């Protein structure tokens, strides 16, 4: 009987394959692997067998794509959450769901420990461990990559060979890629030079603007209460809809992001992302809000969305503040229903129309024609009072100036 039972968040890559055996030996543990499918295009078949061959007694491969979109990505879309105003947070939003499911598997299996394969200098370790701690404070988190003896990939491969751990002899990919249906993050290699333009081979799902069609492509997206429900008039479930927009955006070079990002652990890193559907949906949703949200609600929402985005990025999805802001955000979305028409053209997203049954745009107030219903005469009194403080400042200061002069005399 092993002393410990560990559920490992398992990708099937070199690190987590080596981890299975390493944990088994170093913790005298029975190992169970868990792999969450968040809609990545990477093949997940054969993972159970691979885990078994690395020393696991049992493995779970669970499809979480729908839950990921509906319970994590779309709530963040409703908020308009982009980290540092650019990154739609595909990785950041996936981690709390993976951590939650990891805990569920651990409970089901009666495990006392969980382990992940995140490095010691990234955000993901924080997201995993803080989420696990918030959901199951008694579970012990293990992060072998922070402590084990291997200093390089080669050393891990040697260990794998010595222990008959099957590692695919994949050709060396110069990039570290983390992918799910909401977006792909690409790091390392030449991308570590912030002045180097990302080579075309870094991108997995989008063509370059140069290779995009010379004709624009229009796309109409319909939302109900802030949630996308149809594309070009066709109702779709969440997963099909996002897949469809990834395709449409990808072929028009839409959704590439290249940024220097502030990590929670204090490092600035160069990040390249692809998120065609995410970027299209954020643009469309923002535009629909412009026509449906009352001015002060829209302005106030913008003030708290930065805090909300930081909470998600910094691993605090399962926190009272994130939940409280979410409740506010959800309330604001009650009338964010309608359609937005976008023109996609060589990497650009151009808004070309919007409509809503709850549109607050009133043509009779907006028009400059004879149909105008706006009371122009009311503006006189409005401006008088609105501008009163500034007139007062001038008057008072002038008086003070004059009195000072007479005082000096
Ligand atoms: N910087 C991004 C984030 O913290 C992406 C992390 C990507 N992870 C990876 N293994 N490449 O959300």
What does this structure look like?
This protein is an alpha/beta fold. The chain folds into 3 domains: 4-64 and 80-174, HUPs (Rossmann fold); 179-364, Alpha-Beta Complex (Argininosuccinate synthetase, chain A, domain 2); 375-409. It has 14 helices and 14 strands. The chain has helices at residues 14-26, 47-54, 65-79, 90-109, 124-135, 144-147, 153-162, 238-251, 276-292, 295-313, 320-332, 363-366, 378-386, 388-408; strands spanning 4-9, 29-37, 58-63, 113-115, 140-142, 176-180, 183-187, 217-224, 227-231, 234-235, 256-262, 268-274, 338-345, 348-355. The strands form 3 sheets. A 5-stranded parallel sheet has the order 3-2-1-4-5, sandwiched between helices. Helix 1 packs across helix 7 (153-162) and helix 8 (238-251) packs across helix 9 (276-292). It is elongated and about 90 Å long. Bound molecules: arginine (ARG). The site of arginine has 10 residues, from helix 4, strand 6 and strand 7.
């Amino acid at each position: 009987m092993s002393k410990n039972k560990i559920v490992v968040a398992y990708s099937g890559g070199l690190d987590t394959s080596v981890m299975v055996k390493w944990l088994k030996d170093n913790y005298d543990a029975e190992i169970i692997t868990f792999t969450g499918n968040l809609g990545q295009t990477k093949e997940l078949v054969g993972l159970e067998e691979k885990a078994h061959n690395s020393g696991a007694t049992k493995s779970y491969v669970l499809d979480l794509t729908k839950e990921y979109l509906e319970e994590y990505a779309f709530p963040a879309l409703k908020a308009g959450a982009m980290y540092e105003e650019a990154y739609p947070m595909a990785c950041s939003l996936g981690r709390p769901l993976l951590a939650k499911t990891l805990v569920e598997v651990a409970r089901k299996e009666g495990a006392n420990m969980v382990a992940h394969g995140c490095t010691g200098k990234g955000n993901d370790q924080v997201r995993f461990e803080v989420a696990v701690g918030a959901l199951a404070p008694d579970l012990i988190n293990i992060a072998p990559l922070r402590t084990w003896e291997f200093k390089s990939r080669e050393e891990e491969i040697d260990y794998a060979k010595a222990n008959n751990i099957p590692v695919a002899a994949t050709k060396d990919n110069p990039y570290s890629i983390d992918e799910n249906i909401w977006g792909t993050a690409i790091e390392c290699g030449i991308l570590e030079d912030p002045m180097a333009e990302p080579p075309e081979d870094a991108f997995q799902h989008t063509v370059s603007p140069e290779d995009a069609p010379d004709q624009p492509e229009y796309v109409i997206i319909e939302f109900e209460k802030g949630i996308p429900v149809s594309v070009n008039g066709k109702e779709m479930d969440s997963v099909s809809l996002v897949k469809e927009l990834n395709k449409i955006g990808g072929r028009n070079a839409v959704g590439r992001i290249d940024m220097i990002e502030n990590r929670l652990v204090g490092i600035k890193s160069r990040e390249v992302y692809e998120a065609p559907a995410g970027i299209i949906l954020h643009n469309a949703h923002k535009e629909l809000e412009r026509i449906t949200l009352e001015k002060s609600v829209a302005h106030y929402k913008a003030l708290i969305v930065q805090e909300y985005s930081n909470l998600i990025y910094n691993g605090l999805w399962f926190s009272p503040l994130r939940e409280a802001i979410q409740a506010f955000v959800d309330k604001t979305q009650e009338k964010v229903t309608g359609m937005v028409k976008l023109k996609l053209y060589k990497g650009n997203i151009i808004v070309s129309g919007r409509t809503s049954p709850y549109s607050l745009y009133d043509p009779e107030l907006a028009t400059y024609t004879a149909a105008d219903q706006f009371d122009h005469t009311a503006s006189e009194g409005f401006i008088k009072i609105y501008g009163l403080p500034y007139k007062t400042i001038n008057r008072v200061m002038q008086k003070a100036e004059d009195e000072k002069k007479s005082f000096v005399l």
